[in-house]
Amino acid sequence: MRHIISILLENEAGALSRVAGLFSARGYNIHSLTVAPTEDPSLSRMTLVTSGSDEVIEQITKQLNKLIDVVKLVDLTEGPHIERELMLIKLRAEGEARAELLRLTEIFRGRVLDVTPTTYTVELTGTGEKLDAFLEAVGEGAILETVRSGTSGIARGERALA
Amino acid sequence: MSMELTGAEIVVRCLRDEGVEYVFGYPGGAVLHIYDALFQQEQVKHILVRHEQGATHAADGYARATGRPGVVLVTSGPGATNAVTGIATAYMDSIPLVVLTGQVPTALIGNDAFQEVDNVGITRPCVKHNFLVKDVRDLALTLKKAFYIATTGRPGPVLVDLPKDVTAAKAPYVYPERVRIRSYNPVTRGHPGQIRRAVDLILRARRPVFYTGGGVILSDAAEVLTELVQRLDYPITSTLMGLGGYPATDRRFLGMLGMHGTYEANMAMHHCDVLIAIGARFDDRVTGNVEKFCPHAKIIHVDIDPASISKNVKVDIPIVGDVGRVLRDMLRVLDATDRSPDREALAAWWRQIEEWRAMDCLKYDREAPVIKPQYVLEQLYEVTRGEAFLTSDVGQHQMWAAQFYKFDKPRRWINSGGLGTMGFGLPAAMGVQLAHPDALVCCITGEGSIQMCIQELSTCKQYGLPIKIINLNNRYLGMVRQWQEFFYQGRYAMSYMESLPDFVKLAEAYGHVGMRIERREDVRPALEEALAMKDRLVFLDFITDQTENVYPMVPAGAGLSEMILV
């Protein structure tokens, strides 16, 4: 099962590689990983999407907690949460396709960031599923390039990782 | 305003203020400032090894024998990479080490400078934590953190990488009394509710067994464990790492369990209804096939490392906490209850265990004309009256030592259990001998293992370490040979040690005493003669049976009840 693990870690050189190294050394999956400093510059917030049986996820959270640089973590998928991913996508947009791509972008609540006579560059945010659906809708032939940020997540309501 | 010191002086002052007695190391360009600072004081003594692997193993042996952290100092590049095997050895067995490595000056880091290697990167998977100090003002606090992390919680090695310019720069010296790390707060006290549940289950057991590991030693919990086991009168078995945590000469002790464990220990595990795991981690060499592990048992697991719990085997009552503290809490719960174990069920269980024990699974051919390795260990046990510190290398000799030398006290059996590092025994013995100068320290080894760190014979000469080396020389990499006999139809690929040196001459060349023992009747007199030479290192080269195997054996993939008995 897919899990979103949110981690507060010391904003120190090498902290990211400790997490990444743990996953490769123990053979755990990483679907995506995002990290950036928080409002407290001594801390970074990492969102890591992984999958595995309950036993594997339990080991992952225990092993992460064992890392000295990890201050706190939470498995967001254990409770109600919000997740978002940002995608930038460059589309081949010529002739009749231009209008159709624009419509699709509107339907998916995307924004066109850059226009040339032959291309659109679109920004889209949402869950990974929504981004996948957009890619499906525009069709492989139109896609010149995609960049995805990986999932970021946060718990709903009062619950906070701080 | 406190006085300004150089980084090198700060390192040495920190070691002094930490109460460090010995540093095991080897100099080189990047650590010359530190060596210069060491040279100008007398409190912290430096032991010069002959290879950096020896430094880490010696510090490790010192730590295992004393419970205090071992300290290592090596230079950048090859100095550090040579130390990695020893760091990984300590990591796998949770031994507290502080390893100081030299590094090229900060301005050159990343430039492929001479003797540069990414020490923090290379060691990351085999340390509890590591640091690169880039500013001399962080140095003292970082060293304090290193000692704190290495020695608390589940102990382990911590590496501090020291660029040369940092050791030259100056800063005021203040060694913090205490250190707090917001992201590191090891749990020591077990959950009281879980402890009560555990005691309740323990008292309801009809076929209980204690399964104890290295955590008992690390937590200095041998005494309280002994009290608990004797009060309950339950059987107890121990892992390779846990030997000495409970007196082996007590009748409740079933011997070691696992791949080369005793029949009675493994059968008790297989048939028990309550398994009480204390400071042990369900290693594959202990469990055999986990699908067949303890099929009838409810499992209680006490460990300071939450990640060790339910990692390999799902447990019913997990207790995270310091082993000694949890055991004391269990005793208090027992004190407060008037319930006691079911004596009748327990008597039947003991009768069953005695039947298993009567199989005498460690029997061997005592009449054989050749020297049986087991015989050497039995004789060593008798001659030393079980009082020696034994270090060991890795292989058949290690298993025989674990089976035949009965350890009644903790910290007397010092071996590489988790990583299985050949070459560990001799340098580890140096650390043990330095920690206990008047004690008898024996290194149990074989002609394969001893050659992996044989250069340390020179260190032993320099510091006058009167270690007794018991070389069980069967002219084979015995454990490899045994597996090739069992599982590769006797195709002995590369397991014969050709062109062996004359160990007697070799020992003499290093300035020690060498003895070669080829006849069974000479074993005991040779041991007595060697032990009488209290101030000399004696290398006893026992020419043993070439094809003896370690029994019993649980083959890989089998359950604990499926042992090969002889």
Written account of the structure:
The complex is a heterodimer of chains A (162) and B (566). By secondary structure, chain A is of the alpha+beta class. In chain A, 29% of the residues lie in helices and 40% in strands. Chain A is built from four helices and nine strands; from the N terminus they run E-H-E-E-H-E-E-H-E-E-H-E-E. In chain A, strand 6 and strand 7 form a beta hairpin. The model of chain A has no long low-confidence stretch (mean pLDDT 96). In chain B, the strands form four sheets. A six-stranded parallel beta sheet of chain B has the order 3-2-4-5-7-6, with helices on both faces. Chain B has a six-stranded parallel beta sheet with strand order 11-10-9-12-13-14, sandwiched between helices. In chain B, helix 15 crosses helix 21 (523-532). The radius of gyration of chain B is 24 Å and the shape is globular. The model of chain B has no long low-confidence stretch (mean pLDDT 97). The chains are: A alpha+beta (162), B alpha/beta (566). At the A-B interface, helix 1, helix 2 and strand 4 of A face loops of B.
Keywords:
heterodimer, A: 162 residues, alpha+beta, four-stranded antiparallel beta sheet, B: 566 residues, alpha/beta, six-stranded parallel beta sheet, 16% strand
Estimate the helix proportion of chain B, in percent: 25-40%
Based on DSSP secondary structure assignment, what is the total number of beta strands of chain B? 20
Distance from N terminus to C terminus of chain B (CA atoms, Å) equals 72 Å
| Oligomeric status | heterodimer
The portion of residues assigned to helices of chain A is 25-40%
What is the count of helical runs of chain A? 4
Summarize the structure.
Chain A is an alpha+beta fold.
Write the SSE topology.
The complex is a heterodimer of chains A (162) and B (566).
Chain A: E1 2-10, H1 15-26, E2 32-37, E3 43-51, H2 54-66, E4 70-75, E5 81-92, H3 97-107, E6 111-115, E7 119-126, H4 128-138, E8 143-148, E9 152-155
Antiparallel strand pairs in A: 1-3, 1-4, 2-3, 5-7, 5-8, 5-9, 6-7
Chain B: E1 4-6, H1 7-17, E2 22-25, H2 32-39, E3 45-48, H3 52-66, E4 70-74, H4 78-92, E5 97-103, H5 119-123, E6 129-132, H6 139-151, E7 157-163, H7 164-168, E8 170-172, H8 192-204, E9 208-212, H9 214-218, H10 222-232, E10 236-238, E11 253-256, H11 263-271, E12 274-278, H12 284-287, E13 298-303, E14 317-320, H13 323-335, H14 343-357, H15 373-384, E15 389-392, H16 396-404, E16 413-414, H17 425-435, E17 441-446, H18 457-463, E18 468-473, H19 478-487, H20 503-509, E19 513-517, H21 523-532, E20 538-543
Parallel strand pairs in B: 2-3, 2-4, 4-5, 5-7, 6-7, 9-10, 9-12, 10-11, 12-13, 13-14, 15-16, 15-17, 17-18, 18-20, 19-20
Antiparallel strand pairs in B: 1-8
Helix pairs in contact in B: 1-2, 1-6, 3-4, 3-17, 8-13, 10-13, 11-14, 15-16, 15-21
